[in-house]
Amino acid sequence: MAKRRSDEVKVGISSSSGSSVIVDLSQYVDTIGEVSIDPMVNETHTFGDSWVERTYTGVRGTSPIVIEGYYDDAAASGPHALLGNATDMGSERNFEIDFGASDVVNGKVILTGYNRLPKRGELTRYRSTWTPTGALGSPT
Questions:
Q1: What are phi and psi of 26, to 5 degrees?
Q2: Whole-prediction pTM value?
Q3: Which of 64, 75, 88, 120 has the fewest CB atoms within 10 Å distance of its CB?
Q4: CA torsion sign, 48 to 49 to 52 to 54?
């Protein structure tokens, strides 16, 4: 398998909860937090056991996905316009992250956070948290 480069990654999200059209945010994103699939387990040890035991429940989950980049409030399709609209916070959106070479993750997320991150002497950044609503998949 070939190594993937950052210039191959594409990140997109729909512009509103009612839209299925994915808007490319790639030029506004420089950091993507982990995109994980997490098996759910229960602790199943009993009295008398000297080690913790865990058993897979048969259910998988996903962790929130955090994206970051430079804040831009001027672009009509930039992060502030797409992610910072307070009236749309908490709404379900379609998203897609293409890691290159047909390695695509997509699904539905709820926008659960948007922050502006100013620092003295530096350009202002933003952070957006996307919480998946269910299974992550690939386009058909």
A1: -50, -40
A2: 0.82
A3: 120
A4: negative
One-character DSSP codes across 18-34: T--PEEE-GGG--EE--
The tens digit of pLDDT for each residue in 61-120 reads 899 999 999 998 876 778 888 888 767 788 899 999 998 877 889 999 999 999 999 999
Amino acid identity, position 78? G
**Structural domains of the chain, ranges and CATH numbers in brackets:** 6-132 (2.30.110)
Alpha carbon dihedral 133, 10, 124, 90, in 10-degree steps, equals -20
Query: In 3D, which of 77, 128, 135, 78 has the Cα closest to residue 106?
Result: 135
Please answer whether residues 111 and 89 qualify as being in contact, where contact means their C-beta atoms are separated by less than 8 angstroms.
yes
Question: What's the length of the chain?
Answer: 140
Residue 92 has which token pair?
């379900």
* DSSP single-letter state for residue 137: B
